[in-house]
Amino acid sequence: MRNGLWRCGQNLFQDDTSFFKSVDESGIEWSNLTLPENCRLPLKAIQTTWSCIFLVDDQGYVFKRGPYFLQDWTTAELSSSIEKHPYYFDSWVPLVHPDIYDIQDLSVSSNLLVLIANGGKRLVVFPPSLLESSSPSLQHGSTWSSDSHSRYQSVAAGRGYFLVIVGQGDVYGWGTNDYGQLGIGWEIQSDHSVHIQCKYFHQLTQIESVPSKMAQKVACCDMSSAVLLKNGQVIVFGNNLYLQLATHICCPIQVPQQLDIFSMDHPAIDMAMSGWQLAILGCQGEIWISGKEPIHPLFHSSSCSSQQLPIRVTHPMKEWLSRCSSSITRKEMINHSLLMAGRRYFLLQTPCGIYGYGSGLKDHILSHMSNTSEEEWIVLKQWTLTRQRVFISGAENDIILYHEER
Fold first, then answer.
1. What keywords sit in the KW lines (predicted)?
2. Torsion from C-alpha of 74, 125, 152, 200, nearest 10 degrees
3. Pick from 21, 60, 264, 327: most CB atoms within 10 A?
């Protein structure tokens, strides 16, 4: 695979004729995609949704391709919306604003786009309605500016809310709070000592239950949230209807809880959330998944009283750990691996390649591999232990990969 932007699977809104395709040893076809004009490489970030792609180039500019639709369509609505929509989608559109520049990070959900801009000094959130026109721009978003002593570090968007790490590791939240997904509880006490349900926060609010200056990563999906701490512990809160937060209580978690299975002696390395599932990479290279998928449950919620959560699943670690050489240790291999979430599947990026797990891959992206077991990791791409710059992002119908050898 040569350097560039690649797609596995297809997207109804973005597909164009590829002049170059690559079929790897697993029989998976990757199509080379054109990059935006005036895009400066290398890329800083890629994010995909069900209908579009966002990328950030080396100068911190954002480009968008495809319509930014909500994901709540029925099949009938889908076909009619494709036919009636007036815009041409297989071209890239730059999103520009004179006061929003030097994008450091972005996160996109079904109904929010959140940017960390101006070198980490500014946080901007946009609803999809601002990005659906034929000439979208970064106008009329809600913005916050950091103080002179701190920066916005990383962000994760859920359905109508987001979490952001500020400064040295404090976590703040904004948006809907129907299931306690902001980590600040459901109820607040008014001046008249009456408890009222607090469902929405219009300002950034610190999550005081997360230890100060300890957050390393935040993850959101739908109405569930998780925070990975610098000491390897994992804190969860929000909707837990399908046990996706790895606890035995099938109800919303209002106050953030720590998962007992991970500690300073057995730390988590990374985590990701997808649909109704949470995946966590452990320090020995093992991967744990809790929750269930809407069609292929890993376990049924009725059995939650007897299940140990989360479930340890099969993984490709033994295969690529055996390739460790004197230039890279086993610990370095694990610590340089990343978990990412698609729609009903997870992606594991390692120094040796990319692997996928979950029914969403075989239902929508790799239909020719539908005879493989639900518990098998699929090899999506492998390479030798060379210096690589790789970004990968997965949506419902496709996986987007940026690959560059250095």
1. Repeat
2. -80
3. 60
The beta strands (E) that lie in 57-199 are given as 62-65, 93-95, 105-108, 113-117, 122-126, 142-145, 152-157, 161-166, 170-176, 187-189, 195-197
Nearest to 234 by CA among 266, 207, 204, 208: 266
Split at pLDDT 50, 70, 90, the class of 198 is: low
- Total number of residues shown for the chain: 406
Is the backbone of residue 14 left (phi > 0), alpha (psi -120 to 50) or beta?
A: alpha
Dihedral sign, Cα of residue 58, residue 60, residue 65, residue 68? positive
How far is the C-alpha of 180 from the C-alpha of 251, rounded, in Å?
A: 11
Nearest of 103, 147, 107, 110 to residue 125 by alpha carbon: 107
Q: Cα 180 vs. chain centroid, distance in angstroms?
A: 20
Q: Is 101 helix (H, G, I), strand (E, B) or coil?
A: coil
> Does residue 309 contact residue 293 with C-beta atoms inside 8 Å?
no
Q: Which residues pair with 23 in a beta bridge?
A: 29
Read off the DSSP letter of residue 354: E
The token duo for 393 is 């992002």
DSSP β-ladder status, 200-206 and 105-108: unpaired
Span of 111-125, 206-220, 291-305 with lowest mean pLDDT: 291-305
Given a contact cutoff of 8 angstroms between Cβ atoms, the answer to whether 287 and 261 are in contact is no
Q: What's the confidence (pLDDT) of residue 236?
A: 96
